[in-house]
Amino acid sequence: MNTQEIFDLSIKTGVENDPRGGTGVKDVLSQNKKDYEDLPKRKQAEYDKEKFVNPYSDSRFLVGDRKRKIKRVLVGIDIGVGEVMLANELERRGKKIDLIIAHHPEGKALARLHEVMDIQTAVLACAGVPENISQGVLHDQLENVWRRIMPVNQYKSVMAAELLDIPMINVHTPADNCVWRLVDEYIGKKKLKTVGDLIEALKEIPEYKKAAEIHAGPSIFSGDERSYVGKIVVSGMTGGTSGKGSEKIYERMSHYGIGTEVAMHVGEEDREEAIKHYINIVIAGHMASDSIGLNIIMDKLERAGVEIVPCSGYIRHSRNAKRKRVSGTRAVRRA
Ligand SMILES: [Fe+2]
Ligand SMILES: [Fe+2]
Hints:
Structural class: alpha/beta
Bound molecules: fe (ii) ion
Mean pLDDT: 92
InterPro entries: DUF34/NIF3_sf
Order of helices and strands: HHHEEHEHHHHEHHHEEHEHEHEH
Distance between the termini: 23 Å
Shape: globular
Number of strands: 9
Strand content: 5-15%
Low-confidence stretches: 331-335
Protein name: NGG1p interacting factor NIF3
Number of helices: 15
Organism: Candidatus Berkelbacteria bacterium CG10_big_fil_rev_8_21_14_0_10_41_12
Region (Disordered): 10-41
Largest sheet: 5 strands, mixed
């Protein structure tokens, strides 16, 4: 596979697992085209035309040769300058890295993170919260997120990769869509009574099991082991940033019969609001959840003969092999 093919496959996998469904994704792409056409000519020049084909503005081909043949990739949750230097060092030790894949957005992908947040509306709609409610709550937060990200030095690691001539892409929401679907479908098949049952069920997923061993596994942030789970929503897994855009959503969740939220991470305000409205929060584990999403995509690369080198918190678990094994921190040390 070459770099462009790897990026395209990641986006395609994200679309296949998108909570908005195929039609919802098509609507986003055609709306982007319409927005572009409505712009004055001078603003059209600045418009990111990749938005006509890629519905995830937080996932981009960041730098490098799009045709380069890829045999080995370095994959990490966060790719800073340190990880780029690590790729360079691995090459020096005879383990050439052909491509770096980051999960969390860098460069131009970070600047547009807030544009994928409408996915959260679709996730909550699946659990019975009307779209107008979650859209309204979310809308207030979009500009806040943008204002928080805008001043960040977004190009440090991308520039380092460019200087060292290592292609770099990032795959954020496509991977998060994959973990959302896996966890949502997995929980949907289980008969769970309490939050304790939910925690134990999550720990049967290899990445969460591994995370629990390093004290980063599923944890209760609101409620306790004996709390009834009620209706579960996996709402803090995909859609850009953490949570549902605003802590105000918890009141609405309780109105629409949701008992427990499963998320990657939430803020303190979210927790306080959830407690107030008797909603349980289970934090499945941030790095472990991001790893599940990446693993679903990396398994496809592995099947195409690409070697995956995990770093930066990424817990690699292949679902390709008959004998499943979890690596991750061990692999980094070995490198
Ligand atoms: Fe993520
Ligand atoms: Fe994340």
